[in-house]
Amino acid sequence: MPISLIIEPSGQHWKCSGLVTTAEIHSTNKAAMEALEEYDHSYQLIDLLDVEVFEINDLEIVDVSIDDASFSRKHQNLKMALVVNNPIIKEQIMKYLMVSWALNSNWEFRVYDTVEAARDWFNVEDPEN
Q: Could you list the residue range(s) of the whole structural domain that residue 103 is in?
């Protein structure tokens, strides 16, 4: 599975690898939103470090941004850290962020080069350690 959604005590960790498609993003996003309904999560950690191909076009980026911005109206104050070091994928992530900001998402976003830096921002330790 190119995206694993790991439910942590106070948040979610999306562990992405290989070829990630828009369909997988939508499927994982649906599961993540359902988890937000059930748990009181304060963060989403989107780990894209092991992604080889991020198969999403500009229109699909807008679609994902609209879904997330709409959901942010109900679940405010969520922190989302996107961890990426591939310059092509980082460019796609920046498009997502630009649309999300234009839609006045209630979530706070940051981009990091390491999972550890993202966890520092969340002020949480890796539950596997």
A: 3-122
Q: How far is CA 102 from CA 69, 95, 99, in A?
A: 10, 11, 5
pLDDT (mean) for 109-127: 94
Per the confidence metrics, is the pTM higher than 0.85?
Answer: yes
- The helix or strand, by DSSP H or E, that contains position 111, with its residue range, turns out to be strand 108-112
Judge whether 78 and 107 are in contact, CB under 8 Å. yes
Number of domains in the chain: 1
Q: Decide if 128 is inside a domain.
A: no
Specify burial of residue 28 (Cβ count, 10 A radius: 0-12, 13-18, 19+). Answer: buried
Give residues with Cβ within 8 angstroms of 12, minimum separation 6: 5, 6, 32, 35, 36, 41, 43, 44, 45
Assigned token pair, 7: 């439910």
Residues 12-62 have pLDDT tens digits of 999 999 999 999 999 999 999 999 888 889 999 999 999 999 999 999 999
